Amino acid sequence: MDAEAEDGFREFVASRSSALLKTAVLLSGGDRHAAEDLLQNALIKAAGRWQRIDEPEAYVRQILYRQQISRWRLKWRRRELTVAEPPEHGSGPDDTSAAELRLLMRGALARLTPRQRTVLVLRYFEDLPEADVARILGCSVGTVRSTTHRSLARLRALAPELRALGSEAPGTPGARPAPSRDFSPMEVR
């Protein structure tokens, strides 16, 4: 790699690594150490082909997805996240802060299988269409739809506390769409 390409790679890593790490954390089920390993391996692979890459972020994300798929195909044991004390939960959805919501979602995602978690991350966090998810995972669109449906159902069953938050937190998987505020006149026939 020449000096100019190396500078470009360093600049890319400095500017985009935090966003890529967030995706890696979600893909790894909240295990930050596994996410850092996942991202580091993806960046190493990208560095080897850096001069031939047209869209670096898309390329690195593709590596992240494929490495995660390889990891869950190897059926690695899921590592348990240990904390000194369990987090305290508020009495209702109004008491739930954004940090508590992230903790709830992270814990719920960690209880899904790696395949279910990957599908939900790609569909809702990365906001990819079903066809792109199917292409990335190497399966059919119908498989993505059924896996998404089953994953959301399992997520609701494993974490019923998220169900109450779903109606108030748009953008969360399974949330109801916000009501329209469009009061323009309509023609009724």
Uncertain stretches? 167-172, 174-189
Oligomer: single chain
Order of helices and strands: HHHHHHHH
- Percentage of residues in DSSP E strands: under 5%
Largest sheet report: none
Tally of contiguous helical segments: 8
Structural class: mainly alpha
Count every beta strand, where a strand is a DSSP E run of 2 or more residues. 0
Straight-line distance between termini: 67 Å
Using only CA atoms, what is the Rg? Answer: 19 Å
User: In percent, how helical is the residue content?
Assistant: 55-70%
Kindly describe this structure:
By secondary structure, the chain is mainly alpha-helical. Helix content is 62%, strand content 0%. It has 8 helices and no strands.
Strand and helix layout:
Blueprint: H1 3-27, H2 32-48, H3 56-73, H4 98-110, H5 114-125, H6 130-137, H7 141-158, H8 161-166
Helix pairs in contact: 1-2, 1-3, 2-3, 5-7, 6-7
In short:
The protein is mainly alpha-helical and about 190 residues long. The protein has helices spanning about 5-25, 30-50, 55-75, 100-110, 115-125, 130-135, 140-160, 160-165. The chain contains 8 helices and no strands.
Name some characteristics of this structure:
189 residues; mainly alpha; 8 helices
